[in-house]
Amino acid sequence: SFQPKMISQLHTFLVVFTFLLPSLTDGFTTINTSNKNWKLQVKSSTDDAPLLTNQGLLKRDRYVATNRFAVRSKKGPKFEKRWATRKSRLAELDGFKYFHLMRRVSLNDDGTSSYDEGDSKNGSNMGNYVSYTIWEKKSDFSAWRKGDAFKEAHGGTSISAFVSTMISSLRVLKGAPKPAFYDGLLHQSVVPESIPEAVDGWRNVEADGVNKLPEECFVACNQFFVTSSNAKDFENRWAKRESKLKECNGFIAFTMLKRDYGAKGHGIVEFDENTEPTYVSSTIWENREAFEKWRTGNAFKQAHGEKSPSDKLADEKEKARPPQPLWSRPPIPVFYEGVLV
Predict the structure, then answer these.
(1) Residue 281 CA, distance from chain mean position
(2) How far is 168 from 78, CA to CA, in rounded Å?
(3) Residues 102 and 335: beta-carbon distance below 8 Å
(4) Helical residues (DSSP H) of the chain, grouped into ranges
(5) Max Cα–Cα distance, the chain, nearest Å
(6) CB–CB of 126/70 below 8 Å?
(7) Contacting residues for 127 by C-beta, under 8 A, at least 6 apart
(8) Cβ distance 65 to 102 under 8 Å?
(9) Is the pLDDT of residue 299 over 50?
(10) Cα(221)–Cα(239) distance, integer angstroms
(11) Less Cβ around it within 10 Å: N or C end of the chain?
C-alpha cells in the first residue's frame, strides 16, 4: 500500500509523463528506422552553413537532450538495470548520434572515483544520474519525442504499461526527473574504432540490479553561469581558444552545451540563469586516466591560457590586461561515469 506522500509523488509522475507522452489515440509521427548504418561521424551538420547567427552567436552543431534524475539511496544498480533492460530502438532512429547514461562521481586522490549520491534533504541528490543523448538536429529529437519509439521506451504503449512504469519509477526515484535541453556548439569528436553491440537499436547488456554497470567512458563537465548580455563574448572566447583535444589519447567528444530556453514540455520549469548554468562544457573520455593525462599535459595548459615564454614576454611589453570573467559566479566542475554507451 502507498502512503499519502507516495500517492502525491505518483500524481506528479503522472502529470509529468502525461505531458511528455503524446495522447495514445493521436497519430504517430512516421520515423524511418530502416537505416541501420548509425555509426557516429565527425562531419558536422553545419559544415556548409554560416558559423554565426544573425545575432552574432554560434550556430548549433548538434542538439543535446538530457534528463536529470534523483535516484534514491542505494537504488543506483536497480535504476541502471531498468535502463539496460528497457525496450528502445534509439540507435536505429534518423538523426541519432550518441547516448550514454551517466552517474555522478567524486574524484579521489588515489585515482579512483566514488559515486556521488547527494543528499535528498538539501536536494543535492538531483542529477546523481543523467541521461545524455546527442541528435543531429533538433527536429530529429522532436520527431522521436512525438513518435511511437518514445512511447515504447517510456512504457506508454498502453495505459497499464504506463502506470506500471510510473509505479516502478517511484520505488527508485525521489520525485520526477528534470529535463534540460541544449544547443550543442563547437562540437568535435573522433570516429570510434568500434561501436558497442546493439540489438534492435539498444544495448544488449546484462544487469542484475545489485551491482553497478561497468564504466564505459568518463565525462568531465564545467557549469558556467553566463548572463545573456555576456553570451556573445563568452562564445567568442571559446571559439578562438586553441584546442588540441583530438590529439589526446582517449579523447572521444567535446560539446559546449548552451541551454535551450525555448524548449517546451511539462517538467521544464521557467529558466533562472542565476540558479542554473546557461552553458556547460562536456568532454567525453575513454576513462579517467585519459582525462588526467590531458589535465596534467601541455594541451590543457595551452587551452587554458598558459603561454610560452616568448608569448609571455610579448604580453608584458604590450601590458596586456587579463580578460575579465564573463560569468556571474565561479564555474562548477562535475564529473560522471558513463554506462550503456
Answers:
(1) 10
(2) 10
(3) no
(4) 4-20, 76-84, 138-146, 148-153, 159-172, 231-240, 288-295, 298-303, 309-318
(5) 75
(6) yes
(7) 68, 69, 70, 104, 118, 178
(8) no
(9) yes
(10) 17
(11) N
